[in-house]
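For reference, the entry.
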Amino acid sequence: MPVPALLPYAEALSLLEIKPWAGEPQNRANPDGAVRRLLFGMHGAGQLVYLIAEDRQEVHLLRVLWLD
């Protein structure tokens, strides 16, 4: 990941630690779905797609994308 992405990425991971449901649903037809999407960085250049495993209190990153 490029250097300009590192701090915003770390901030996004910190947010997921305390508020995993902060992201938007990956599938808008399923607003309560456990697969979520969180934009990060300047102008939303980064995107995390992740799965919330609430029963195990885990968040699994499925995709990290940086488009800058």
Notes: The mean pLDDT is 96. Helices lie at 3-18. The first helix runs from residue 3 to 18.
